[in-house]
Amino acid sequence: MSRIKHALRLIFLSPRQFLYVRRMKRSGLFDRKFYLEVNPLIHWIFRFFPERHYVLFGESAGLYPNPDFSPKAYLKHNPDIRSGGMAPFDHYLRAGRHEQRVTRDLPSDGGGLSIPLPKLRGAEANPADYAVVVHIYYHDLWEEFEARLKMLDFDFDLFVSITYKGDETEALAEQIREAWPRSRVVPMPNHGRDIFPFLHLINAGLLSGYKAVCKFHTKKSPHRQDGDTWRRHLIDGILPEAGTRALLERFVAEPDAAFWVADGQHYNDPQWWGSNLNRTTELLQRIEVPVDKDRLSFPAGSIYWLKPQIVTLLRGLQLGTENFDLELGQTDGTVAHAIERVLGVMTDAMGMHILQTSQLAALPAPEPAAPGPSFVSAFYLPQFHPTPENDAWWGKGFTEWMAATRAQPNFVGHAHPVLPSDLGFYDLRVTETLGQQAELARAAGIDAFCVYHYWFDGRRILETPIDRLMERPDIAFPFYLCWANESWRRNWDGMSGEILLEQSYAPGFAASLAESLVPYFNDPRYQRPDGMRPRFVIYRPEDMPDPAAAVAEMRETWRRLGVGEVELGAVLFHIEGESPVEADLFDFWVEMPPHGLVGMDDYLFGGPDGNRMQAGVMPAFSGLIYDYDAVRRNSQSARYMSKLPAHTIAGIMPSWDNTARRGRDAHMAYGANPVSFERWLREMLKTRIPHAYRGELMINAWNEWAEKAMLEPTQQYGSANLDVLRRNL
């Protein structure tokens, strides 16, 4: 009988109720999608008529008609309405919105007392493979969470952030530390929901290096009918009472999975943008990730497992307290809500996906990983110490650091200046620095540095680091040399502008150069990748007057001096110089992205189609911006690969941006970050390395800081580029 009465009430509204529903629809302030999503227990018939359900039952039950209106709070903060007998939301539609009345509860002091933001320092090493991060706002839920943590069948490091509420927080923190001695417990101000405390741990480097990180929090969601049930479903999905280890290992083994969420928590529809599109776009400009407003796929609920690639990009956002909204009980539209969508766009940008628990359980066995390269090199720039020449040309004390630190952004979100972290602003006259660099490179899977060698008819420049290395046999620094045979010019591109130091190719230059290299070849740290021949590379062979004659003279000199055969290579620039070079003149060629990989359709600014940038470009900028992802795709296209000499070492770059050298005239690859670099590398291991010369890989570069092409740790991303290599090589 009650069902019949409800049905009749739904059909036959009173005149007053009918007009109320009409006002709701006309106002556009009743959010149907929101109302149905947060109230899943509504009978299926009423889901076709949510406005009527709200008028008949929802308002009296305290349900929200949109994320920012609480009928109970409206009555509490506006007591004059009670005497009139008008429904709270109806009053708001008629008058309250024009009078700017309070529509929801403001946080009380007990919601999070103000405390200074704790200063955190990263750990030296992670004791476990996995991290579990718990944020506690509702202190009474810790007991429920602790019971679940004790059930887990794998080892993990525990991080707990607690919204500070005075003595009760101090007591709970001490309780957790006693029960979990290895845990890191961090009281936090009530700012940025569960998101900012999580980012604070990431920014400190505490969550770097794990195979996967689990994040959950004390979610009650008072605006939902099923807040407690929903929370338990979300946690049960990613931390089941039994079998978590097996699912977690499968998640880690799936290279294309970025997130693991409970069933029903992968939202895949642009309708879920809500009021978060603009903020999501602004946030992602910080890491050069564009947003497609017609697509949205993201992990909902802020409870999930995530891969280290996501941790990397979240760190790259460099968000602090100043970037988050004041806590006013919002249910949408804040930076914390935008971060949910950010995670989804990041996942798309990586070419990865979101897995729900049932999908994870049904995955087939992973495919075997592609074999790694046989030998990995990285170009190495020695211009990190002062020289008399640079003092004269650029000012006293000039080094590459001076250029790098002066760089200014050319578009909104452009990360400049880029600053070092682990190795600091080093001076390569200190030979121990080379040893530290080699230690980082070795741990990441790099076999050797290809060090630029500046020789101008017997005159040397930037020779101090490598010559001092020769005096220190105790420093393990594997290297081989690349003769950077361009003339030095004031505009840094080697092709135009005032000549500072000319490469004249005087008669006999080839023999003189070859003879000068013998002491380096004889050093035991000098690399012989094939196990027999020392390797030497020429940067611009087409600039030599007679490349074939020069190469023959070099080879003959080395034989005469007892060196024997040298594995001689050249950089492939895809442009003709003054002297054409036959493909078989060298033992191998080396790709050097971005050279030869940027097509006319790939320009986002400065190309034939004008300005296609989503981010705003500075008015004075007159350089070129192209798409990093397009370069990645081009490097694997059949058309491009068909033009390569058969004996070519495959090349890759983590980034490219010479703003530090050319300012408003710079050329740069938009969309370069450690995760897009990893996507390119993973693809190359399958498509390019099997066909490369000796299965080798060359990275451009180890430390080109003024061209933003470096693997060394940065303040923005930490050691992320090295971590990419470590995971994949």
Automatic annotation (TrEMBL):
It holds the Pfam family RgpF. Transmembrane segments: none annotated. CDD domains: Glyco_tran_WbsX. InterPro entries: RgpF, WbsX. This is Glycoside hydrolase family 99-like domain-containing protein. It comes from Ruegeria aquimaris.
